[in-house]
Fold this sequence. Notes:
Layout: H1 5-21, H2 26-33, H3 37-49, E1 53-54, E2 62-63, H4 65-87, H5 93-103, H6 109-122, E3 130-133, E4 137-140, H7 151-162
Antiparallel strand pairs: 1-2, 3-4
Helix pairs in contact: 1-2, 1-3, 1-4, 2-3, 4-5, 4-6
Amino acid sequence: MELSSSLEDYLEAIYNVIKVKTAARATDIAKKLNVANSSVTNALQILVKRGLVNHAPYDIITLTPEGRKTAKQIAWKHEVFRDFFITVLAIDSDTANKCACSIEHIIPDEVVERFIQYLDFERQCEYGGKRWVEGSGFKRNAGINENGQCEVCKEKQGKDARS
Length: 163
């Protein structure tokens, strides 16, 4: 079932509000997305018809099991991209959130998995990988060998084994 970017944003907002408050109201969603209450009402009607949320007028909003699964997937993508933008590209948090919100709707899960693998690679050690150096761009901290280890870690691992 395809959802528009806008409906995905509503579903993600509902998911995030529920994580904090255990249930959501239309006014919570309107405030979180900075939209009118009538926009929330229209989106809720569509999400109810698609079986993703439970909602009656003036009542709380809850996610159906399918809605929770879908919303969790959207939120997961958002966090992966936000983390990538902050950790790898050294982008400020507000910009990273805005960019993540835009990109999360168009990138397939298999590509997100590659981003995760790259983030894991970046976190392997404090010496390897690339880092953004203001005014200079990306700089490699150390060489990476054919096994994906930086040369510093390889040397350190060798020393530890000999100790």
